């Protein structure tokens, strides 16, 4: 036991010591002057002091033990059950809860930091690929004199890939401040969906894929954030177009909106290459591309991860099913505001 701890103990018990001796001195004086003058004051004071020392020694042992247990908390060691006072137990329990809370928060922050570091590292690695392709295209053009139109077309394709990767990474970083940019509102799902489909008109034509929308009601309202919901749908539709592309046969993407009470289900089904069953459970993991990623160089593995995070933060249920050579279906469940309550 250090002297600092001992002096701290005396300071904490200074008021008790003062009250103890003052009260006993007053009782002794009262007995001497008003009861009997034969009372030995020094004898009484000696007894009081002896009892005081015994009591304080007992208190000192418990004080040191409590201090030791608090120090053990700082070393992340479980506190043993001992005969502490109720107040000491309450303080130790409170410190332990605070300690565990901050430990959990530190662990969560560390995990997020590690994940972000891995994402950025992998993203930089993926970004190098289209840049290397552009460099090879330019080298080949200088050596073999390839037609300018073909060179420009290949460079434009790689440029689009880089822009897409940059856009996905920006969306990922915006997710970290989701609550600052989130406004729940009643949104006309069909109008929002049509706007996104129309914005991708050129992609549909270029890839020989066309949309088909089915909805029994023109005014189905859902509770969501219009901007984040659009980001989520854009990614799902882009994937559907990319993996359904066909030069020989026209394919379709089917959009179906169904309302059942206060729930609205949006189904997006394509006629693409499908996803392996072994990959389905991992498609929402960051940078996971699976078997399709080896046949489609533009796959980054960020899109579906960002989509799943947006759906989770918006409170929408997101499910995906797929069959090889048949297609993939994504279902999103929304909470709806009934039309009668919409103004």
Automatic annotation (TrEMBL):
It holds the Pfam family HATPase_c. It comes from the Bacteria. It is an enzyme of class 2 (transferase). Its main location: membrane. The chain crosses the membrane at residues 12-35, 41-61. Residues 122-338 form the Histidine kinase domain. Keywords: ATP-binding, Cell membrane, Kinase, Membrane, Nucleotide-binding, Phosphoprotein, Transferase, Transmembrane, Transmembrane helix, Two-component regulatory system. CDD domains: HisKA. Its EC number is 2.7.13.3. It catalyses: ATP + protein L-histidine = ADP + protein N-phospho-L-histidine. It is a multi-pass membrane protein. GO terms for cellular component: plasma membrane. InterPro entries: BphY/WalK/GraS-like, HATPase_C_sf, HATPase_dom, His_kinase_dom, HisK_dim/P_dom, HisK_dim/P_sf, Sig_transdc_His_kin-like_C. One of its GO terms (biological process) is cellular response to phosphate starvation. SUPFAM superfamilies: ATPase domain of HSP90 chaperone/DNA topoisomerase II/histidine kinase (SSF55874), Homodimeric domain of signal transducing histidine kinase (SSF47384). It is found in: Cell membrane. GO terms for molecular function: ATP binding; phosphoprotein phosphatase activity; phosphorelay sensor kinase activity. PANTHER family: HISTIDINE KINASE (PTHR45453:SF2), PHOSPHATE REGULON SENSOR PROTEIN PHOR (PTHR45453). This is histidine kinase. It comes from Paenibacillus lutimineralis.
């Amino acid at each position: 036991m250090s002297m600092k701890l001992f002096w701290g103990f005396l300071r904490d018990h200074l008021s008790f010591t003062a009250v103890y001796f003052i009260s006993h001195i007053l009782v002794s004086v009262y007995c001497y002057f008003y009861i009997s003058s034969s009372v030995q004051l020094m004898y009484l004071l000696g007894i009081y002091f002896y009892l005081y020392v015994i009591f304080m020694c007992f208190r000192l042992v418990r004080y040191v033990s409590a201090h030791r247990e608090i120090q053990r908390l700082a070393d992340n060691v479980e506190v043993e059950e001992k005969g502490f006072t109720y107040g000491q137990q309450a303080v130790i329990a409170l410190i332990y809860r605070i300690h565990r809370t901050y430990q959990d928060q530190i662990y969560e922050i560390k995990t997020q930091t590690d994940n972000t570091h891995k994402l950025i590292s992998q993203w930089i690695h993926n970004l190098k690929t289209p840049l290397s392709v552009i460099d090879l295209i330019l080298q080949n053009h200088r050596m073999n004199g390839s037609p300018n139109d073909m060179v420009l077309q290949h460079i434009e394709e790689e440029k689009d890939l880089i822009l897409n990767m940059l856009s996905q990474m920006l969306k990922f970083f915006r997710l970290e401040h989701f609550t600052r940019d989130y406004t729940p509102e009643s949104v006309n799902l069909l109008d929002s969906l049509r706007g996104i489909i129309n914005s991708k008109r050129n992609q549909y034509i270029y890839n020989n894929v066309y949309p088909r929308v089915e909805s029994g009601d023109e005014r189905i309202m859902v509770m969501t954030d219009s901007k984040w919901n659009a980001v989520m749908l854009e990614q799902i539709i882009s994937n559907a177009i990319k993996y359904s592309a066909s030069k020989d046969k026209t394919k379709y993407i089917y959009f179906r909106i169904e309302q059942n009470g206060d729930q609205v289900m949006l189904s997006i089904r394509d006629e693409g290459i499908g996803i392996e069953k072994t990959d389905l459970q991992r498609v929402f993991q960051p940078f996971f591309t699976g078997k399709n990623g080896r046949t489609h160089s533009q796959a980054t593995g960020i899109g579906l991860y960002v989509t799943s995070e947006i759906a989770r933060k918006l409170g929408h249920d997101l499910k995906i099913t797929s069959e090889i050579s048949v297609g993939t279906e994504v279902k999103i469940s929304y909470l709806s505001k009934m039309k009668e309550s919409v103004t």
